[in-house]
């Protein structure tokens, strides 16, 4: 963990940086991402952020991308601009381990929407900036 920020509730967070222009959750995500800079052993700077569903939205991914940040965000309820319905329909009846990858651009930021069928009843949804992850084929998760 690189950054931990105390949140002061709805009223206490209203005047925070970025909230007025992009909303409270995306604003919080960007404030955290700004302080999440890590250098590897070779001295290369890696800037990124992984966020759970509270922080996550397409808007947050776009705002991070506009600032040169790589993000991987879990989408749950904040699904505006996210093709959740399309992904649900495409994966309906599929077994666990199946996924769908959609690519698109919003405000000139290349994004990836991913739906992963965790089980026959549960699908996980993610949005990330194109440069945040690879879509190379790997070893599949074995459902038990």
Treating each run of at least 4 consecutive H or I residues as one helix, how many helices? 5
Average pLDDT taken over every residue? 82
Low-confidence stretches: none
**Helix and strand pattern:** HHHEEHEHEEE
The main sheet orders its strands as 1-2-3-6-5-4
Tally of discrete structural domains = 1
Kindly estimate the percentage of residues that lie in beta strands according to DSSP. Answer: 25-35%
DSSP strand count: 6
Helix percent reads: 25-40%
* Overall SS class: alpha+beta
Shape: globular
Structural summary, described in words:
This protein has 144 residues and is of the alpha+beta class. It has one domain (13-132). The chain contains five helices and six strands. A six-stranded mixed sheet has the order 1-2-3-6-5-4. A hairpin with a 2-residue loop joins strand 4 (99-106) and strand 5. The longest helix has 11 residues, at 24-34. The radius of gyration is 16 Å and the shape is globular. The chain starts with 8 loop residues before the first helix and ends in a 15-residue tail after the last strand. The mean pLDDT is 82.
Gist of the model:
This protein is of the alpha+beta class and about 140 residues long.
